[in-house]
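Sat 14:20. Reprocessing the chain from the morning session after the first attempt stalled halfway. Input below, unchanged.
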Amino acid sequence: MELRNKSATFEYFIEDKFDAGMVLTGTEVKAIRDGRVSFSDSYCLIDHGELYVKGLHISHYEFGSYANHPPVRDRKLLLKKKEITRIIQKMKDKGFTIIPLKIYFNERGYAKMQIGLAKGKKLHDKRESVKQRESEREIKRYLG
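Finished this time. Tokens:
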């Protein structure tokens, strides 16, 4: 199962991608398996050499009891030190930001988040993306 941030590729040019582990509670994992995640207004930041995702909304697990998690909180992402230093080096360039791209479960059952090092698109770039997407749809209509 894979949950994607659909607006990420529309709003940003993705330069580089990284796969990070997530530090979650039990009810958060169950809510993610139910697909109850919203990526709107979520972003990643580096604080004291550690990577966090902020603004990611994971809804309450409906069968959770008193141990249910808060829907929006800072969640730690797990990356190797080399990858974090590589991200810091690229972040020094002007205009780069770190955004969550998708959440998935690997073959061992661990929740992972794919993050992307991205640059924001201008308005004309967004229009170009819409035109390209519409032309691909027309081509599929004619062929299929």
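The chain has four helices and nine strands.
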